[in-house]
Amino acid sequence: MDSRKDALAELARASSTGIVTAETAAAAWHSSDRRAASRRLAALSRQGWLRRVRKGTYEISPLEARSAGGAPYEDPWVLAMKVFGPCYIGGWSAAEHWGLTEQLFRETFVVTGANVRAVHSTVAGLEFRLARVPPERAVGDAVVWRRTARVPCSSPERTLVDAGNIPAWVGGARHLGDIIARYAETRTPDLDVFARCLSSHRRGAAAKRLGFLADRLGKGEQDASTANTLASIRDIALRHLSAGIVRLDPAVRTRGRMNTAWGLWINAEVARRET
User: Fold this and answer.
1) Which burial class, exposed, middle or buried, applies to 235 when counting CB atoms under 10 A from its CB (0-12, 13-18, 19+)?
2) SS3 94
3) Residue 20: enclosing H or E segment and its boundaries?
4) Which of 12, 46, 83, 271 has the CA that lies 20 to 30 A from 135?
5) Stretches in the chain below the pLDDT threshold 70
6) Half-sphere exposure for 104 (CA within 13 Å, toward CB)
């Protein structure tokens, strides 16, 4: 590269998301020297042309963001892919995306296979809630377009199963009940996908929690379509039950009352659907 302008132009062409690393830069600059690329990125950052979002990762700064501190990165989903990969957007963020909840969460929920230690992370002014899993499990089963970037995400069905395994991913068992109810009301649930997800991604407790909640929510449900979907979720869950007894909400320390049919300690109240 003969000039800083040319170097930045090459970076911009190499990254549709505006996020660059030493690997991105070396490829864009037709170099095999990642260390040299890293040093040049750091120099461009010091000059205000790039903004460091974490060690070794930079954002190409728009002209209007070159004031002190800059503006937050505009799309946390795209940033998460670059910073926490391999990963996918899941939990409450996926539930929000698919219209399964109206509750708003400040943090973007990321299921990551990266070697992260913190549960909460702030990068480029954006807040993330991280759930670490083995890298082979950090693969979404749906893809969402965020402008020009393809971002892996959990499907509505995978979101349910993930939350059945760990209710905290959607804010707890009570909120999981609301999400199941909303899913049943959408009129476009894919129960075949739900069954495959439950078979592939359950960790013993998901079927118990999802089945119990669907059964509970279906009692007294007057809408035939919603009632049928809830009954189908219950029946699919029954086929995947495992031995042992778990708490409906692991985050609640009390055990509550025993439900032997589902192998659950009912330690969180989930209201029946209004009739």
Assistant:
1) middle
2) helix
3) strand 19-21
4) 12
5) 1-2, 46-48, 61-74, 147, 271-275
6) 1
Number of other residues whose CB lies within 10 A of the CB of residue 1: 15
C-alpha 194 chain-centroid distance = 17
Domain residue extents for the chain: 4-65, 74-154, 167-275
Buried b vs exposed e over 20-39: b needs ≥16 C-beta within 10 Å? bbbebbbbbbeeeeeeebbe
Structure confidence at residue 272 (pLDDT): 56
CA distances from 148 to 144, 151, 155, 270 (A): 10, 10, 20, 40
Tens digit of each residue's pLDDT (9 = 90 or more) over 45-80? 766 678 777 778 888 865 434 443 444 456 889 889
